[in-house]
Amino acid sequence: MTTATNAPVFGCASEQGPKRPRNADAHAHHVHHGRLAVVVVDGTGSAPDVAAFAAQAADTTARVAARRGPVLGVIHAAETCMDTDNPIPQSDGTIVAATAEEGGYWLVGWAGDCVAYAVDHDGAVTRITTPETEGQRLRDAGEPENVARKHDHQTLNSVGRIHICGVRGKASPADTPRILLASDGLTLKTDEIAAILRDHPNDQQTAAALLVKAARKAGSRDDITVLVAVHPDTQQQEEQVEGGDR
C-alpha cells in the first residue's frame, strides 16, 4: 500500500450525451490509509434509477477498493443492484476501478467495456483493460475488424452480471505515474489520448476536459466520463523535488 498522505491529485470531466435526458455515468474516489482508489461507472441507459445506481455503485466501489482492492470493490458494487426476483437487474452498468499500490503501479478491476489506460513518464499510453464485448470476442476469434466493430456496443459483462461472469483484474506496468479511467464514450485512439496527456502533464483536470471535448468532436454521442489520476508515489516524489529546489 502506498504511504503518501497528501490530498490525491486527479482530474475528472463528465458530459451528458447530446440526445440523452441525463448523464448516467458516475465517478468516485476514496483514500484509506494512504491508498487511493478511483472508479468510473457507465450506467446502462438514462433512466433516473440508472443514474442513481451508477452513483451508488461508484461510491461503494471506491470505499471498498481503497481497503481491499479493486476486484473486491467491484464485487461489492454488484450488491447495489441485486434483485432477488430478477437475475439480471434493470439498473445496471459497466465499471472500472483502480487502486494505487506501493512501488508505483496500479491494480485494476473491471466488468464490461469501461477502460483503463496506463500513462508512463513520457506520456505514452497503454491499455490495461480488455473490453468484455461481443465485438472483442469476434476479434479474438479472428473475425475481420469491419465485422467486429459492429458489435462493440454489445457488452458481455456488467455490474449486474458479475455473479455470472465474474470480475477481471490486472496490474499496470511497474512504473505508472498516471492512470486514465473512462466510460466507453471515450472513443479516441490511443495516440490521440497520448497527445493530449503529453500536453498537460501537470494539469489533470484540463487533460480530462480536453479528452471529453475531443471525443465529442470526433463523433461520440454517448455520455463521456474521463478521470486522470496521479499515483501518490509520483506526487510525493515531485513534491520532494520541488521542495529541494526552494
UniProtKB/TrEMBL annotation:
UniProt source species: Longimycelium tulufanense
Ranges that cross the membrane: none
Region (Disordered): 1-29
Domain PPM-type phosphatase: 9-231
InterPro entries in UniProt: PPM-type-like_dom_sf (IPR036457), PPM-type_phosphatase-like_dom (IPR001932)
Name recorded for this polypeptide: PPM-type phosphatase domain-containing protein
